[in-house]
Amino acid sequence: MSTRKYFKSFLSFSIGTWLRAFISVFTTPIITYLINPEEFGKSAMYATAFGVINTTVLFGTDQAFVRFFYDYEEDRKNELLWSCLLPSVFIATILSLFVLVLSDRISVVLYGQRYDFINLILVVNIYLSLFQRYNQLIVRMLKKGMLYSLIDIVAAISTTVFTIIFALISRTFYSVILGGLVGTLLALLVGISQGKSYWRVTKPRKEELKEVLKYSAPFVPTMLLFWLFSSIDRISLRQYSTFVQIGIYSAAFKVVQVLTLVQSGFTTFWVPTAYERYSKDNQDTSFFVRANEMVSFVMFSVGFLLLGFKDILFLLLAKSYRESSMVFPFLAFLPIMYSISETTVVWINFKKKSYWHVLITMVSALTNYIGNTVLVPIYGARGAAISTGVSYIVFFWMRTLVAMKLHPKAGYNLKKVTLVTVLMTTVALIETFQNNVAVNMVLGALGIIITIIVYKEPFTLVKKEFLDVLKAGLLR
What we know:
Blueprint: H1 3-34, H2 37-58, H3 61-68, H4 77-101, H5 103-111, H6 118-141, H7 145-169, H8 173-193, H9 206-216, H10 219-240, H11 243-280, H12 286-314, H13 328-331, H14 333-342, H15 346-350, H16 355-379, H17 381-406, H18 414-432, H19 437-454, H20 456-472
Helix pairs in contact: 1-7, 1-11, 1-20, 2-4, 2-6, 2-8, 2-10, 2-11, 3-4, 3-9, 4-6, 4-9, 6-8, 7-8, 10-16, 10-17, 11-12, 11-14, 11-17, 12-14, 12-18, 12-19, 14-17, 16-17, 18-19
């Protein structure tokens, strides 16, 4: 596949992602005026609890679905789907009963008091999100980029509209949760309606179930560790700080979501493309090196752009959330370092050495735990952001160094990413402890210029391809 075709494919998968980012930028301020930081913080704790349950429910079978998708004939792909889905439905049922029985205790731990029906909503969300996960995976593996984007768009618009509607009725964290629930439901209905044959119910074969579980089980400890790694910040804030600080931290995350959605769009396109490329030529490293350079250039550039204009963006939020602008800088490292690491970690996956993911996530989680324990009691949300950002840098280096150890001929240029990472860390540190708009804009502009100089080839290529695509009318 030519560079232009890869670029066109990426764009088709990313249309929905970019629209979601656009919607997020313009609706987050509205929501902050409707819901105060304390209630916003409680919605973040709900998301944290949902995250660990969702990870456990999936049991890594979604990874098995991706791994074996191209191994099954077209008329048997529904067998693979149900071989992966049924174990998760069983686990979801067990955990749902547990949540409902201990509903009051769970509410007090998460929100500080008892809330009616909140855990019933959680249970409904567990099942909807499980089916939505496979709904997206089917479309993703079939490389139906426009349909994938449509599902994204439906989810984004409906979540936003219903969150605002519910917030106008009740300005509590229920509004955020119910808005997301409706968005998931509508996105699921759109996806399933376009791929009914894949959802045709069938009884899985015993051998296929064993194969799926054998492959997926090793992912479970890694995914739970990754949940812990990515949730230590909010857990620490809950332990050492207040719901207001969690709300401010979550508002900063909403702006980071612009970058996270870019990461999501790339990952959606990248995973099937990388596996397909490797299956055709397992000695080709140049493709992955070029991808690494392009992703590094794009993510660092967007990151510096947001760092430069963050103060203007946060002025749009309600006054009670303005402190979030000083929480944002280090949080930008989450989607940036994760996206870049996706282009290097492929060699761990290709070599089927998945046990390395456990060690990588353990070291990263330990780094985050120590950092949050030390910094949150002193700096609150800013301390959590610094610790989390640094731990994601560690996460990138662990993934990359292990991958290069397993495949010494990978050929990645680590000097470039090291230089720009050090530069961005310096800028983020400065912007965390001062909020002079002019200084931050100069720092952001300087970062972009240096990134373009360091990644001159990717910049030239991306610019050329983008202009060629526009001329060819492929963006219509």
